[in-house]
Amino acid sequence: MNAAIRPSTRRPQSRLRRLIAPLVAPQVFDFWASRLHPTWSWERSLARIVGRSEASADAVTLLLAPNRHWRGARAGQHLMVGARIDGVLVQRSYSLSHAPRGDGRIAITVKAIEGGKLSRHLHGEAKVGDVLELGAAFGDMVLPERVDGAWLFLAAGSGITPLMAMTRELAAQGMPAPLTVLYWARRREELCFVDELREIAARHPNFRVRFLLTRQEPRDDDEDAGRIDPALLARHVGDLSARQVYACGPGGFVVQARESGAAQARAFAAEAFTPPPRTLEESGTVEVLLARSGRTVELPRGESLLTALESQGLKLPSGCRMGLCNTCSCGKTSGTTRHLHTGDVQAEPVSSLRLCVNSATSHLVLDL
């Protein structure tokens, strides 16, 4: 249960819902309830922005107060965030940048991305008092119940946000296990949470942080220059065989992190917030039958089904567009597909398919 919601507040609302359910549609209830309070809703998870602060030269942290429908999350997880922009709901996935708080509030840190409609809106236009839509939390790269052994977090760019949430959680527990954070950015002004990370390092002798710059020379004792490779990891971490490693960042960074340390580490887990390079290019087209609409389209091989279907004019639900949130999943009743990141072929006739990270390699029948 959300720590900000007491049982005494749940019971009267549940009785009210039971009384009025036969009399009013949820959409009608939401319309009138929002006139009384912006986050009152029949069943939608909504959150009001209650604070915002600059996190770096191009990122902002938004503090959100969710309504009673928000089911909570664990440090390291992501959630879908939606805002109405020019009357259209735009949704994308963001990592929580703070561990769960006792007051029920949550935080996301948003970097303004070139061409990113929602990120630009949240960074430059969203203000305290605005209401956002929230999806359920997802993601498996979280801390175990008992944290032991030595840990290494590898972060690049916005990949710091889920790892920062876990770092804050460990700091709140007194840093029960040794942890090193290596955090890459192009320039110093693009780094987030620098003062807080340094403060955590000052309080906890078994926590170390190093800031790695790829387009500036190091200036401070906890800075270095260079991209991720085995030599850099050896210089800052030493032996990886005792380390549990979490890596998060752009797809290319995650690939390099895996190649540089996964084989040597005690355990390795990673999440990419942009797709890694495709492992296989294919040419030609295939015929795809959209079973529910009865429409047949020709789609190119080697391109994500989501992108290819959107180019045919279909408006499909989507979120992270990197295979994590499951928003774009649909049923496949026949045909063969290839995972764009791993190259794995899936020929099972009846299965669930994530459109954003799979391409067609044969004629398909999709439940669309």
What brief labels describe this structure?
368 residues, alpha/beta, Elongation Factor Tu (Ef-tu), domain 3, Rossmann fold, Ubiquitin-like (UB roll), 3 domains, 6-stranded parallel sheet, globular, disordered N terminus
Order of helices and strands: HHEEEEEHEEHEHEEHEHEEEHEEEEEE
**CATH class group of the largest domain:** Mainly Beta
Poorly predicted runs are 1-12
Major sheet size, sense and barrel closure: 6 strands, antiparallel
Biggest sheet, spatial arrangement of strands: 4-3-6-1-2-5
Domain 2Fe-2S ferredoxin-type: 284-368
Domain FAD-binding FR-type: 42-144
Organism: Lysobacter gummosus
Protein name: Ferredoxin reductase
What order do the helices and strands come in, and which of them pair?
Elements: H1 7-20, H2 26-36, E1 46-56, E2 59-66, E3 78-85, E4 88-95, E5 106-111, H3 117-124, E6 131-134, E7 150-156, H4 160-172, E8 179-185, H5 194-203, E9 207-213, E10 223-225, H6 230-236, E11 243-249, H7 251-262, E12 267-272, E13 285-290, E14 295-300, H8 305-311, E15 329-334, E16 337-339, E17 345-346, E18 351-354, E19 358-360, E20 364-366
Parallel strand pairs: 7-8, 7-11, 8-9, 9-10, 11-12, 13-20
Antiparallel strand pairs: 1-2, 1-6, 2-5, 3-4, 3-6, 13-14, 15-18, 15-20, 16-17, 16-19
Domain 2Fe-2S ferredoxin-type: 284-368
Pfam families: FAD_binding_6 (PF00970), Fer2 (PF00111), NAD_binding_1 (PF00175)
Protein name: Ferredoxin reductase
